[in-house]
Input
Amino acid sequence: MNNLWEDIKKTISEWSIVASEKAEEFTYKSRLRLDILQLERKLSSMYVKLGLYVFNKTKDKNVLNFVGDKRYISLIDNIVVVKNKIKSKKYKIDNPDHELLDSKEHISYEKANNDEE
Output
């Protein structure tokens, strides 16, 4: 009978470890999905800014060539950066073998995101 209780305790302990790991994985993936949604909103806003800029330049000054335009190039570069961040986060979701971010990386990531805004 004593052995039965030890087995039950051991089984419950193992289940709690597995449940904890699954909860951590779920939380990590949910945070990535939320980050992706925020980045996609930011990307949409950037596309609007780019479109308005091109429209106004074309309409007001008949500019059709943006090769040397620093603001245009900056907008394009920012869009590429955000698209790469989205791609990276989607890769992390699709490849669970990726290690979870440790707290230092998460803090530096949060700081970098806040600095960009």
DSSP finds three helices and no strands in the chain. Residues 5 and 11 are 10 Å apart (CA to CA). Residues 2-61 form the longest helix (60 residues).
